[in-house]
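Supplementary notes (optional reading)

For those who missed the lab, this is the record we used. Protein: Lysine transporter LysE. Length: 208 residues.
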Amino acid sequence: MFDLTSLLTIAIAFFIAAASPGPATLAVATISMHSGRKSGLLFGAGLALGLAFWGLVAATGLGAILQASSYALSVLKLVGGAYLLWLAWMSARSAMVKADMSVPPKSTRHPGFRHGLVLNLSNPKAVIAWMAVLALGLDDGGSAAQVMLATGTCMVLGLAIYMLYALVFSTSGAMALYRKTRRWIDGAVAGLFAAAGIGLIRSAFVKQ
């Protein structure tokens, strides 16, 4: 039976999965520190929409079909891995530039909504995580309304998580710290993105 306890269980599990350090949260934090609150919020909104898309895929049962299709899942993993490697290259290139970061950057050409959307849309592991989270609180007898309520709750929670990351890391203190240690942060971020991208591409060639 689906009740408030089941919904709370799903929400807690989703919060832990979505808020934990990963490519999406790392990206929104870095962009917020580098480009400010507006860019961070737009990027986070894109991430939230991409995550919501995979939630709908999982809720409608298409996630199970995708997971069963090794070819489609492998293609998505390759695309997602390639995008992560591109992000790694961008961060590495930024780390190699000796720019004066004593003042905030004035350029307005920073990753925004579209980049956040693409990042989470290119992560096929998200649908698997959604399926696992929904399964925690929903049994086989769960109605469509119950599934959509749980999915909608997690969508709102996902948006709140990314917005919170953007707000926290776009504070003056966080941005000042980034300007002082930009090359170290960008270098570390490049390494993490590269590791995630290579791992996703390797998993595309591993038979399930």
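If you only remember one thing from this example: Residues 4-204 form one domain.
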